[in-house]
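Task: sequence in, structure out. Protein: DUF6533 domain-containing protein.
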Amino acid sequence: MAEDVTLNDLAGFAVNYYINLAAFTLLVYDYFLTFVPEVERFWCSGRLNWATGFFYFNRYASLLGHAPVMMEFFWSTANPAKISICHSLQSYHQYLAIVIQLVVACIMIMRIYALYECSVKVLALQIIVAALAVAVGCWAVLGGKKETFPDVLIPTGCASSLTRYQATRLGAAWGGLLFFDTLVFGMTLYKAFSFPHAKEITLLTVLLRDGAVFFCIMVAANLGNMLTFMFGTPYTRGVATTLTNVLSSVMISRLMLNLRHPALVSHGTSRSMAPTEELTYPNITFFGPSYQTDSSGTDATPTSLSESEPTRPGRTRMMYTYLAGGSNRNNHDIDSIELLDRNGHLV
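Result:
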């Protein structure tokens, strides 16, 4: 009952309320902030492919799927039947976390697969590590003893507590995800440092930099969440789970929206384009596109990838079309992922 709750427990409830309220606010606010770009860059593409499919699923599974989670933390009632419903909501929350992280991992794999020029070995390595992380997550959620603390009925939300045993298993699951994120982060940094440094910031270098920023933040978020399982109190263990899921979903959506920015390609990108034709790309950052200024200092012009990497036009275009997944702006007809070899032929 509520009268059995201590001051430390009340402090744990407050931490849950505020952190989850911040996560829900971020999720909804970012959705409305990016709704118009989503309509322009995805809804108008006309066709569905792997890139758009993962984008929609990540976007709306996170937005709609967190509605029951909001109920878990902010449902106000004194009905004793609330305790059994809370148990179901807590299990649902754990399954939702697995689904969201799995979708985000798939998008990460696509990104690294493209950056490594569609290397089958890189793809196999990522799939194996991701599968192991998913297996550990399922083991943590489905297996083990069902020990729990005595149920507590509080006026607002559910008293979500975890025993030390449960926290250890769930912490191990997030540790598997942390290992996967660290692997992807390391592969992104390796790719960034393996390319020769150019005076201009090209599309490739900015994509690598943005990817490094994304993965660095996610590694930090996953590490912080894992630490709450290890050192938190019964009512604060895993308190950052919702926030970590929201950050993953929001940031991966932002990256995919940026890849379809209308300023990304300044020349036509039709299938009939010759492989020797010069492609110019504006610089894009994690927050949007920007332009370089020419030597005269008068006009802003896009950076040309062909100037900094003249020997790899096919691979650069292959990476770009794979990551972007197509765009319908300016009559660009890229409704599916195109892969070009070094000679510019579709593969």
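The CA atoms of residues 136 and 172 lie 7 Å apart.
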